[in-house]
Amino acid sequence: VKIDPQRFLAMFLEEAGEHLETLERGLLDLESAPGERGLLDNIFRAAHSIKGGSGTFGFDDVMRFTHVLESLLDELRNGQQTANSGLVELLLEATDCLRELVDVAPSGGAAPPQMERLLGALESARVAGGAAAAPAAAQPVAAPAADLRRLTLAVRPRPELFRSGMDPLLLLRDLCALGQVQGVRLELEDLPALDALDPTRCHLAWTVELDTSAADAELREVFSFVEDECQLAIAPRAAAGAADDPAADPAAAAAAGSAPQPGAAPTLERRAKPRNDGATIRVPTEKVDALIDLVGELVISQSMIEGAIAALPPESAARLRTALATMVHNTREIQERVMSIRMVPISTVFSRFPRLVRDLAGQLGKEVELELEGQETELDKTVVEGLGDPLMHLVRNALDHGLERPEQRLAAGKPAQGRVRLAARDSGGSVIIELSDDGGGIDVRRIRQKAVAKGLIAADADLTDEQLQLLIFEPGFSTVEQVSDLSGRGVGMDVVRSNVTALNGSITIESTPGQGTTFRIKLPLTLAILDGLLVTCGEQKYVLPTLSVLESLRPKVEELRQVYERGELVLVRGEPLPLLRLHHLLAVDQAVTAPERGLVVLLDTEQGRVGLLVDALLGQSQVVIKNLENNYGRVAGLLGATILGDGEVALILDVQGLLDLARRRPPYQCELEPARSPSSSAPDRETSPR
Amino acid sequence: MKSNTRSATAAEAVTQQFLTFRLGEEEYGVPILEVREIRGYSAPTPIPNTPHFIRGVINLRGQVVPVVDLRAKFSMRAVEYGQFTVVVIVNVGNRTVGLVVDAVSDVLSVGPDTVEPPPNLGQGVDMSFLLGMAKTDERLVLLLDSARLISAEQLTQIELPAA
């Protein structure tokens, strides 16, 4: 078998990333629960796994660093030290350094400069902790004699041990290196007669008498690679080395482990079990995407069959129809399940914020409590990944600009500690993420001054507070006079909005002076499937994202207005809204040009409500988004394309892109007589949107 | 990824096969390894605001594939599409594009010694999508660099209306 080291390397790097996250999260939690054993175990295990993996790949710096880190963590775990905030700070710093180390390891890059300093700091933190017991404890193994425990270890490999390529001798050696061996006895009672002996199976067991200061977990760690193939029982040897030595009776040795010592885990097997509950498989995303594509195809071919069957006379093909109904049901189920593979909980993004907030608050001298809600909300992996940066900006912004300084807060009658809340929730076909702070709110007067100064608006512009608030998303807008290095570089909010828009989402602001600000991001569950409204224009069908559609209506002639050289308006319940024409923006021939004969779809956009003239509405449909970039390139006004039930390609409209197009295009010149009445007003209705 | 065909024809002493097709009086060829299939022409879905030589997109077994009218792309006189009009689907790297041509001729084996560099037609004439010319007894075939021809750069350049 050829082993591809690259593959394992990629796996190691991915896992190391996860372990680092566990490490960081654990350390942060540790601050509120310094002595929590489970937490400490998790942290230790994460560090240990990184160490193991780095050894395999010969990443010496990583290994050396983790080793020292691990030793300190072990002291915490054994209760030799408690995690005070200074120590946690150091460990967090070490985690960052470790992350950098892991990053540069594959390329053989230079270790980060702070590594040696941190190594020293970790080392001295450890010695300081252990100093009380043994001042000269330089080696991790040479431990204070006071901790020495006299143990009997029953090592019982399963017969299949050899199959995993394990040599029990190595295990025993490792075990013996952890302390002083007082005696080893070979247990032969399972050894069959020579003629029955199977040399591929292990028939031996050992009892080791060991004096050691190592913790049980450390002893068990030796067996971590053979957990399932080897039983290990740890029992103290009779206290003062007195009369009843359990090891005297070989049969009792194994039993001694489980029976008289309820505190010690009886076998390693017990640990293996719960692991299966959340069993996962790592699968490359391309495989999942290919599957999603195929299922999309399946759905399309199915609708073609549906169409063909529908064309048959009703009395025939009854059985075919029944069979098809079952198939439709199953296909839908498959589609849902396959789509759900790509869904990941939003906690993968949220999890980085406790650390960020903690560090930022420290730097800014503010007191901040971060509240996370709805972490289990699931979103498409791509959406979740694309969400990281905009959220990061928003959180930084909330801390930097949103929350006031403690003394200001106290003066305003608020608690000194500010609150930032990050919450996610499902809402129909979309997910809503809210970031709120209880800070000073957005100062619309300053926004106005700034916008006027920057020439974004006229000095006498008549804008509502909401409109003024939206100005912060304009490129180059930043209200804080003093540029800090955290946020307020003048980039940021506009990037936030464009990032969110790129995910087919939208962002809104709600702010009350003195009480705080809430940013609300609305995102589709997935980028692969879109809830769309099928419309016609000319001979083509187009899909409008349902997320941006408010309603549709057929205007009366007297509700239409022309603004000279500026464009058209449509009055919706008395309110004038800009009217765009799809046929004009996309240069479509033979479309309905008289709004009173077509249909106006009201769209919710970042610039407010806008009417879009189309020929007719065909219905709602879930469509699989195919991007045009793969084989072609970006097209203004289009989000992508999709394949309809009849195999025809329909273009998916990008509402924001259409607005941009409208800005660049000269306005539509209304003919005096919008008489031409094309055939397209009676569109082909054969496609049945699901 | 396919290797760079430019260097393959110019430098290496290998015989390559090209699918040849006609555009008016001229004969063109694309490396046969890059041809995925040949299909009859059926009207694609037009894409708005794209160059005039983009006929639209078609559904190629679930993939949305743009269709380029090569006559239009090469600024040749447009003709009515007839029964011989076909779409040659080429696939280079991870891009797939359909090329509308007058008719497919045959498969031509081209040795390295029969290829000449593309003619220099002076400034302003973009010849960058030509690999070279293959000269046999009585034929002259212009060999296309499909990777370059179907690049986003070549297909999306559009004279935007003055903003």
Summary, kept brief:
By secondary structure, chain A is an alpha+beta fold. Chain A contains 20 helices and 22 strands. In chain A, helix 1 (5-32) packs antiparallel against helix 4 and helix 4 runs antiparallel to helix 5 (114-131).
Unreliable stretches of chain A (pLDDT < 50, length at least 5) are: 129-146, 239-276, 480-490, 672-690
Q: Radius of gyration of chain B, rounded?
A: 16 Å
What spatial order of strands do you see in the largest sheet of chain A? 14-18-19-17-16-15
- Output the radius of gyration of chain A: 34 Å
Largest sheet of chain A: 6 strands, mixed
Low-confidence stretches of chain B: 1-11, 159-163
Integer average pLDDT of chain A = 78
Class by alpha and beta content of chain B: mainly beta
What is the tally of helical segments of chain A?
A: 20
- Give the end-to-end Cα distance of chain A, rounded to a whole number of Å: 49 Å
> How much strand of chain B?
35-45%
Largest sheet of chain B: 6 strands, mixed
Give the helix/strand layout:
The complex is a heterodimer of chains A (690) and B (163).
Chain A: H1 5-32, H2 37-57, H3 60-77, H4 85-104, H5 114-131, E1 149-157, H6 168-176, E2 179-187, E3 205-212, H7 216-221, E4 230-236, H8 250-258, H9 269-275, H10 285-310, H11 318-341, E5 343-345, H12 347-350, H13 353-364, E6 368-373, E7 378-380, H14 381-402, H15 406-411, E8 418-427, E9 430-437, H16 444-453, H17 465-470, H18 493-502, E10 506-512, E11 516-524, E12 529-537, E13 540-545, E14 549-553, E15 560-563, E16 567-572, E17 575-581, H19 582-585, E18 599-605, E19 608-614, E20 616-624, E21 638-643, E22 649-653, H20 655-664
Parallel strand pairs in A: 6-8, 13-22, 17-19
Antiparallel strand pairs in A: 1-3, 1-4, 2-3, 5-7, 8-9, 9-11, 10-11, 12-13, 12-20, 14-18, 15-16, 16-17, 18-19, 21-22
Helix pairs in contact in A: 1-2, 1-4, 2-3, 3-4, 3-5, 4-5, 10-11, 13-14, 14-18
Chain B: H1 5-10, E1 16-23, E2 26-31, E3 35-40, E4 54-60, E5 63-69, H2 70-73, E6 86-92, E7 95-101, E8 103-110, E9 115-116, E10 130-135, E11 140-144, H3 146-149, H4 152-156
Parallel strand pairs in B: 2-11, 5-7
Antiparallel strand pairs in B: 1-2, 1-8, 3-6, 4-5, 6-7, 9-10, 10-11
